Amino acid sequence: MATPRASWSVGAEAAGNGRAGVLQLSGTWNAGHAPDLEQLLASIEKEMPDQAAGIPVILDCSGILLLDTLGSHLLQKVRMALSAGGRAVLLQGLLPERQVLVDEVALPQRSKDDKGRDAGAYGMLADIGQAVVDAGKDLSSGVAFFGATVVALGRLLTGRARLRLPAVVTQLERVGLRGVPIIALISFLVGAIIAQQSIFQLRTFGTVHFVADLLGILVLRELAVLLTAIMIAGRSGSSFTAELGSMKMREEVDALETMGLDPLEVLVLPRILALIIALPLLTFLASMAGIAGGALVAFFYGGVSYEVFFSRLQNAIGFNTFMVGMIKAPFMALVIGIIACIEGFAVRGSAESLGSHTTASVVKAIFIVIVVDGLFAMFFAAIDY
């Protein structure tokens, strides 16, 4: 193999005006000649001030016989060294496939000033700005996906699309039936803990029996639906994202489109419909489990009999108290389903992408669920419901 070489000359500038320094590169630029390439790079940097002072430089690579990743990296180092000080450097004579390799290794290099700025207030403001831009993109993509889902649902209601009932039943079994044990257990324990802490405080005022009022209103209006939505976001939302992401990586979504099937109708609608049906049912179950846990603790820890507890509960709550939590549930289910499907379809062809989007799905879904709960709380307070 030919030893890598470099020679300086002066020729016409590529634009046709003035003079330019021409650095002709030849030989074999690969890992087998790494020591020779390092010495050559040092000699180029040493001769550069004398050979190309104040004029543009053309890197003529037509004489390079072989080029690999290491050679491309060193070629990029030559290019960066020559361009120091704002000098124009033109790369020519590379074959198309070699040009692609050089472009791939030509990673952007930041100066020390940029690194210093990133470590201070400039970097913090840049991160905040990037977060705002990303939030805006997420909002716009979410609205667009929601619109596409509504259109697909409209086609379903008007008979222009087919409801895949087996897929809906399968998702109902996975989201609803298999989620019953964990949601019932968590709600029971949270209800018991709230009752215990409430009794501990109410004893100071001699009003232990008011634990039924506090627990009933808190569980039915807020805690049951919120706990259920958070559990579903972590359990089923992450599952939806992982499933759709894996299908995206294996190009199964593209295969559906090739067969003339709409992925929204086949993959998204069954999951969202299952969530909208299952979440209110699970919320009702969570409410009953939370109240049962509170009643049990009130009896054994607070000495409040079941008759007194449920009598106080019946007087404290009304039908509107129960309906507040049930009204919130379908909206939270819709939010969880849309976020999970968006993140699933956003997965690209790597395991790292799948993991990051699954994590983002859970975090975003829980955050939006809490925001939605707060908005509903303000709305119901405003209308005195």
List the main descriptive attributes of the protein structure presented here:
about 70% helix; alpha/beta; 13 helices; 4 strands; about 375 residues; Transcription Regulator spoIIAA; four-stranded mixed sheet; elongated; single chain; 2 domains
If you had to describe this structure to a student in words, what would you say it looks like?
With 385 residues, this protein is an alpha/beta fold. It folds into two domains: 5-109, STAS domain (Transcription Regulator spoIIAA, 2-Layer Sandwich), CATH 3.30.750.24; 162-382, no CATH class. 71% of the residues lie in helices and 9% in strands. The chain contains 13 helices and four strands. The chain has helices at 34-51, 69-82, 96-105, 112-118, 121-157, 165-175, 180-202, 211-249, 252-258, 263-300, 306-316, 319-345, 351-382, and strands at 5-12, 19-29, 57-67, 89-92. A four-stranded mixed β-sheet has the order 1-2-3-4, with helices on one face. Strand 3, helix 2 and strand 4 (89-92) form a beta-alpha-beta unit.
